[in-house]
Amino acid sequence: MTTQLLRFYDRVKRWTDDTAATVWDDTRLRLLAIVGSIALVALAPLIFTSTLIRLFIEVAIYGIFALSLNLLIGYTGLLSFGHAAFFGTPAYVALLMMTNGITSVWLILPVAILATLVLALVMGYLSLQSYGIYFAMLTLAFSQVVYVLAQNQPFGLTGGSNGLISLEYPNFGIPGVVHLELSTVEYFYIAVVLLVAVYYVVRRVVNSPFGSVLIAIRENEDRVAFAGYNVLFYKLASFSLSAVLCAFGGLLFAFYYRAVSPEHLYWLWSGEGVAMVILGGAGSVVGPVFGAIAFIGIREAVSPFLTDWTIVLGIVFVGTILVRALRE
Fold first, then answer.
1. Where are the alpha helices (DSSP H) in 152-208?
2. Nearest CA to 263 among 188, 158, 167?
3. Quick check: 279 and 105 in contact, CB under 8 A?
4. Which of 100, 109, 103, 95 is nearest to 178 (CA)?
C-alpha cells in the first residue's frame, strides 16, 4: 500500500512539475513577445521611413474600425453595412468644431463620442427590430441617410461633396494653459496605444459574462430569449459599444489628417470593414487587425501596377472564404 502511494505521489509530482514548466515557458514566451513588441514600437521611428510610419498609422485606424465591427459580426452575429456612419460622424463633429475655432481634443472627444452614441442608439434600436439580411439592409439605409445629409450640407455645415478641411491643428494640451500639437511620430505612438486599448476592451468584453451572452445570441437567439435574457438589450448594447469604439478610429483619422469627406460615411467604407473582418477571421479578437494589414498591404503592393487593385482583393477575399469553407 505504501509503495503504491509513493508511486502515485511520484506521478502527481512529475505531472505538476511538467505543467509548471509548460506554464512558465508560455509565460516567458508571452513576456518576450510583449517586451519585443514594445521595443519594436519604441524604435520604429528610427528603423522605418516616415512614409511607412504614416502607413502604420493608417493600419491602426483601419484596425480599430475592423475590431469594433468584429464585435458585431464575429461575436453577436450581426452583419452591419452601416458602420461607416460611426466612423464618419465623429470625424465630422471633430472637423466642424476645429473649423469653428474649438481645437482642444479634450473638448472635442466627449461631444463626438456622445453624438456617435446617440446615433448608434437610434439607428440600432430601429434596425434591431428586424433580423438577418433585413437588419443589414436597414443599417445600410440609415448609413446612406447620414451620407446624403453630409453631401447636401444642411445649413452649410458639412461642406458638401468636398467635406471639411481644418487649417487649425488639434490641441492635445490643456485648453487655455498649454497648446500642444503632435508630430507624425507622436501620432504613431497614440495610434498604437489606441489600437491596443480597443483590442484590450474587445477581448475583455468577449471573455466576460456579457460576452458569453452575445456569443449565445449569435449561436441561438431564441434559446437565449427562452432563458430569460433581454435579447434586444444585449444586441443594442453590443451595437452601441461597437459604435463608440469605432468613433475612436474616426477621431484619430480626423485629428491626424484634419480632413473628412462624405466617402467616409458611404456604404463602401462599411464594406471594406466587413472585408477586413472576414480576411482576418470573424470571431477572432486579433484577426481583424491582421485583416486590416492584409487589406492595406494588398492595396499598397498592387495599386502601383494595377489601377483597379480591388480585383486582386476580391480574388483573395473569395479564396479566403473558400479555404475556410473547405476546412469546416
1. 184-206
2. 158
3. no
4. 103
